[in-house]
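Example 3.2
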Amino acid sequence: MTFSRRDFLKSSTATVATAVSPLALTSASASPRVVDEFIDYDALGMADLIKTREISAREAVEITIRRIEAMEPIINVMNTRSYERAYDRAEAIAADTTFAGVPILIKDMIDVGGVRRTDGSRMLMTNIPAENVMYIDGVEAAGMNIVGMTNVPEFAQLGVITNNTAFGLSRNPWDLSLSTLGSSGGSGAAVAAGIVPMAHGTDGGGSNRLPASVQGIFGMKPSRARMLPGEVGGQHGPVKTNQVLSRTVRDSAALFAHTEDPNGPFAPVGVISGPSSRRLRIGFAPAIKGGIAVEASVAKAQENAAQLLRDLGHQVVDAEIPVSHDEFFQHYNGAFLGQFGVFSDQALAISGSHAAASGLLDPFTASLIAYGAETPVDVAAAGMAYLAKVPAAYAELFSEIDVLLSPVMPFLSVQGDALTPQTRVNDSVLEFLQHGLSYTASANVSGHCAMSVPLNWDPVSGLPIGSMFQAATGNDGLLYQLAFELEEARPWKDHWAPYSVKHIPI
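Structure, written as tokens:
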């Protein structure tokens, strides 16, 4: 049976009419399953279809809903659907905006007015913010239409696994037994599966780069305070930044331009639309001092990335990451673990009981709070003092090189059940988490920009392997220019996961 584009849209409309009913949220099978002929369009490509009236903004919502309802039983990446809100906005979004009503998913760790925000916790299942934060205002002003919220570990604390008791485990579209990583794991999987071409993420320790690396997509962490504030009251998180995971660099760059803070510490980058002719001095750090050995497939991928840079005319020199793994995480733990008691305080306010006794927090989170509560005051103070020196260490490195290349993480993948919400935190659990964050977390402490670029696929397993590129604070535009060049040299958009809309009719 052959479907035309209009037949597809009619079929999509019929499915969505059922899917949004309160009685059947996963009834995509009620209509004939067809190949999604829009799957190869990125967000700007879909926007062009809307602007030329080949499809409407409402039909774009319908297409996305159909994808969600077909893929959600397989990969489980959605915490909250906001379909009716998206339909209402589809009628009002101006066609002359950059994205003209293209749907987007938002990570469930930021305030969207009128949409439930849970942070992946049973404690916040009824939390509905009244207003957008400024970053979300920028996303919507760009013409993007929010259709739902994506899954996260509870309060992002499970780190390399996107799982929680409230919504369950998100699965990697490349291999359902593997982790999506986190904490933007739900967003990464939604993009890798083709539900949307771009999804929002927050990055507080690697959260946009780690999922991008293991799911074959592009993930950006901007410089601290570069973007519009993502916190209530117009505040910036001390280590967390907002941006997106995407199939193409141009989608990310276009939304970046709309969500920069014009009142921030940096002159706006504006729209970066392609590579630069400038040749860079790129430092290559294949490992980190004190860290575990990098798996052979990952190491080979980074050597391959370095050679690609040489072939493109860049100067690649030896470099060293300016922190030691063991020393960094000793102080990182001292500075931050004691601060998790705020979640216990919230549980007490709601239930009258702290942490584990409240029944509102996953055992992992509750045990992390108990573990962190044992941090001595002097250890916390020493941790903060050490972390305050990290920005200067990176600034010195970036005075000698333009960009730093390294692995995103030392291993190829993580099993989806390597940790669970029932895991109790101890020294070995923390050590495992820290190995996953080995290469990414120090960039958040430093505040400089970083990105994961999907340049390699493991020849044995077929799994993607990202490469991390970092630049000095404020040099976000330089990274985007490099990303465009790498995308042209080694395109990745058409590398599709087996559990994706590209291969699974909706």
